[in-house]
Design goal:
3-stranded antiparallel beta sheet; alpha+beta; 434 Repressor (Amino-terminal Domain); Hypothetical protein af1432
Amino acid sequence: MNARSSKREIFAQEMKKWWEENKDAWSTQKKLAAHLAIGKSTIGDYIRGVSFPSPTIAGKLYEVTQLDILKPEPRMHFSENTLQGQVPTKESDSVNEHSIQRDVKPKVPEEKSKPDVDTPTAESVQASPHSTVAERQEFFIPIFGFVWLYPEEVQVLNHPAVQRLGRINQLGLANLVYRGATHTRLEHSIGTVHIAQRMINAVHHTADKARKRNERFGAPVQPLEKRFIRLGALLHDIGHIVSGHTIEDEMCLICEHDSDERLNALFIDTEGVWKDKDSLSLEQLIDREFQRYLPKDLIEKELVPSDVVRLLIRKRPKAEEDTFLDKQKIMAESSDIRLNICRDIIGNTICADLLDYLHRDWYHIGKVRTFDDRILQYMEICPEEQPVDKQNPVPKNTDKFVINIGKSPKIRTDAVSQILEFLEWRYQLAESVLFHRTKLAAEAMLDRALYDLWGTDSESAERVLLRIGDDELFRVCRELAEKENGEDSISVKLLRALEKRQIFTSLCTLSYYDLLPDRRRKIQNHYSPGPEPSSVPGANRNQILQVLESDFVMTPGSLAMFCPGVSMKAKVADVVITVGDEVNKFSEYEDQMQDLLAAGHLTAQIMRFERLWRVHFFIDRVERKRIGPRVEKLLQDAVTKLALDELHSYEKDSPETIARNIAISLTTIESSPWYGHKVREEPIMAAYAGMEAATGMYPFGAPSIRSYVENEPPKSGS
């Protein structure tokens, strides 16, 4: 028997004896475990000799039991910020956590003060020791090198619900073009924690400078706020699935990654898919490990740590649908954890999320951008009004996280340039990577394949997509499609092509400039995802492709369409700045002051983002070769004039006349399947009898080409 086994057995005997003597005071082992903020079954494990507590838990248990075997060894007490003989690292904390008195004589609580619920009391939480710099664990990732995490953060990181992010590519299908872009959302999440800590440190640094200069400043990030900012940074992408932005934002196939529905699936995990080794859900683990960092007022209002972090990272629904509305109001009124400050640091405009992914994405696609610390120097907390104690302001829920641009005549033009540079980098990333034509072709193929597989059944789609990684996406969905739809289905064909990287080529593209404003809005409303999730755009895209394939007698699944949403994500422009005593969004300040700071550059950049929008149609390369260039030209005309209803001002013909003229042209081309057929004067809608999606008309009302042609064509693809 080794020494530890012997010690565990002795401890089990003493613990069992102590429990028999004191169980009346605690009622149940679960309540004792809750008081200690440990797992509900842990006390039973100790009594049975299954395990021996870690030093941290042993210290807490000693305070209650006074068992000599648990008595901690004498040790030096270090601050949160420094160790004796050690220079703080660049990620070290800028403010000390609450010091913990470990030698206060503990007592078994009297009957009147024993806990009557399973959650820790405010008093017990305040007595729980906070983890320190000395206990942190390092992780090495590209760009930043070592990133340090606290023990409880490591436990969250190791939870299966979080580890799944290690199988999800940060840039989705971009690695089909940029082969090095295989970095994961887990790597990005760890990097975001690092940046969040640097932003916290920067806020403390600017507060120290303002204090020395006797300038106005707000209370910097507080110790408990820091813990939840770091946790929020680690979990800000927790809800993402494979090719998430494509499937959620562009296809609208399932709900968004930061919706309450998605977070419920991962935090609560009612199906038990992502329980950890102790059978804890992510929510239970967070509540156990971070209860000690929850401010007393939030505990008394019955909030738990998982509530707090969810409020920091979720997307708020409409008020009438918001099940977290009451908790949101409690957090919004709290000055202990300032909701807006924490959210802005984690993931709003110029935030930890953006500062990490901009550098990380460029690094992995092979175009490295150097991280410039300059912007950190201008980050600060701005109070709404002059603090009573100017040297030691107290935190208030009205405080704002801002970029300080300075005041006339000392405007920090370099800060303005840095903001504009981030905006330019974000634009270039969208232009070069996110909207690369080959990547969009792959996404359009995936869009059609998944719609053919699931249609509007978002629940089934989410259940599958949440459990797989990018390396499994095509294979798993193909195997499911083979089972559900058959070997010859559109979904199987497209997914098999994606597995082999047989990506469609461009058929035609209409850009922002090619379309009149009213026509562009009509197309966006019909085919693009809007501000609210809807299955209608996906159904419309699927319908238009089926009608085109039927009109030109093409193999089903030979065409694909990509039509992005209206918003092109220029949110960097909405960063909150201070210029003198004025606090405003950068974009709004420029509007009011007639481009005073950026001299029109910001306005031009926002316009460039808007004009990234375009609608694409793609075609299978084999099918394109088969139909030939003359038929392809007529197909392009059908797309622009019938499917998109884009008629030039000089074109006087009606959609009906255009459809009939295309039909006439097709009957004169030898490579056309309609060669030699007669054309009717009026369309026959019965031409589409028996077809599910194709109704005999294009979505904007133009009749199909096929409805004008007499007799049935040969089999498609021949």
